[in-house]
Design goal:
elongated, 10 helices, 36% helix
Length: 301
Amino acid sequence: MAYFLRIDHNGKALGIWEITTTEAVRIDVTNPRTGPGSYFRAETGEEIFEAIRRQATSWFAPNGENPFHCMDLGPGEHYPRMARPNDQHPYESPGFNPTTHLEQETVLQIRSQTTLLARRLSEIFQTIHPTARNMQAYGNDIRNLLILAAMEVEAQWKGILRANGKTGEKTSDYVALLPAMKLDQYRVTLPEFPWLTAVAPFRTWDAGAPSKSLEWYNAYNATKHDREVAFGEATLERAIAAVCANVVLLAAQYGIPYGLGQRSRLADDFYICETPRWEPSEVYIDPYSSVESWKSVPFPF
């Protein structure tokens, strides 16, 4: 038995199906075995998808492409601290975290810390105007902000791994989160400063060089361990990227409205202009009637 999401020719989601070798039952409707187009049974010697194609030919693309996408998770299952769309709205990225209400204290702690980082950045902007010509400016306040922002990113990386039954102490561990959460596909703008280029804090993250491939994180390591030599590495541009990395992690864990908060300072100061595109197989399936509630399952790193 496996679960499938049907997507029509126009990309519209049209129901979750429980499919075995002999039967296909749509589980997101009531009484599916008696409703038209919600139950199929294979005849002797016939494969189930052949039976569906025989009875619902128009569901299949002219080239024969199967509209059913096998799901990674079952109904009500989700990965801890990882937001994704659900089966009804598979393209509404980054989606949501079904058990955010059980993690309100954690969410508040992260949001509060990120808000403080944003406030420090705003204070720096009062002295150094955020324009292209000033992006390479550096100083003690900028360095301190970069260090605090990068440390908070590390704390969130560790928390996400721990929630999924893994431990991590270095970036070679943390980079496993990149494909799991598609962090490289996020871009952030600062609406108050529309002339600034959108920031993609994880766009260059590479498992082959997990520390050095993140410019802002590499600068944090350098200036933290040797301020006198690497003081100039802690630039305004990199501090902005580190703060944006925290904003991205909030959204990637809990979704935008619940992560950043509705009508919050973070939601006003940062706009996530690009989010990941999830494959139909990767989204979360609502519990429906087959299970009682949402259940956390560890991500298979």
